[in-house]
Design a protein that fits this description.
Number of strands: 3
Strand content: 35-45%
Helix content: 10-25%
Radius of gyration: 13 Å
Shape: globular
Strand order of the largest sheet: 1-2-3
Distance between the termini: 21 Å
Number of domains: 1
Length: 71
């Protein structure tokens, strides 16, 4: 877990956001599951699955989290 200076858009205003990246392997293929949660309510704020891993995709996930409406 790493501290990030971001808050989701919308109605939610958590003081902290927990972000996790998990590798899922199905047969010979790997997928990267990103999830952001409000640690106080255990509510998912954003989830995304990628078929590859790059720093750019991590940045996309975090950007989407910042812009997520209704969170």
């Amino acid at each position: 877990m790493q501290k990030a200076d971001l808050q989701p858009a919308g109605g939610a205003d958590p003081d902290h956001v927990t972000v996790d990246e998990t590798v899922i392997q199905l047969n010979d293929e790997r997928y990267w599951l990103y999830a952001a949660l409000d640690p106080e309510t255990n509510t998912f704020l954003h989830i995304r699955l990628f078929s590859t891993y790059t720093t750019g995709l991590t940045e996309i996930f975090l950007s989407e989290l910042r812009e997520k409406p209704g969170v």
